[in-house]
Amino acid sequence: MRYFEDEFKKRVDYIRSFVESAGASGIVYGNSGGKDSALVGILCKSACDNTLGIIMPCGSSRNYSLDAADARIIAEQHEIETRTVDLSGVRTQELDVLNGVCKLNDAARINIAPRLRMITLYAIAAAENRVVAGTGNRSEAYMGYFTKWGDGAHDFNPIADLTVTEIYAFLAWLGAPQFLQEKAPSAGLFDTQTDESEMGVTYAAIDRWILEGSALPEDKAIIDRFHSRSEHKRRPISTFDQP
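Below the sequence we write its predicted structure tokens.
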């Protein structure tokens, strides 16, 4: 039996304590219009009235339409201040510059957007004495399905221990809009992208392995492969240790 009311209070207390200990006057986070950013926004706003959500379209038409509209719905419902920073032009300029010095592969191109968003959040945080809230979940972390120094960069993360399945349950308890339950999880990096199609396995299967230790052989093979090859993302930065 999960006691969401008690859990909600503990997470809010954690956020409030972190902000106070950091000597910050507010929080900033990326509001993508998805389930993770919705839960983070709700938790942060409950802990700190000076919470700011940033919508950051960057090279994908869905960023300007579906994602932005959904992001604003959540923000308006919880009275979260919202600003939009259009990064598409910056991304184009970065690609032009890089194409002059090397040949980019798909991974290099795709990861530019999350890293530009990270730069944006930290610039706003520095300018306004805010801390950056992370929006990554446990399922993504296990699979390494995040961009190093992109959406994987933050000062604190109030949902890092929650799987996708648990986040959906938390949002249902909060009475969040149904579209968050129905919307296919996506980083929104390009118009046809969804997390599950890109990984080749469902979050339900991933979470079943994480929480119960069971998986179909074909799912387990994919999960093991993603987890193994992304180990470097979960390790601390390697530094030289003088013997």
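The radius of gyration is 18 Å.
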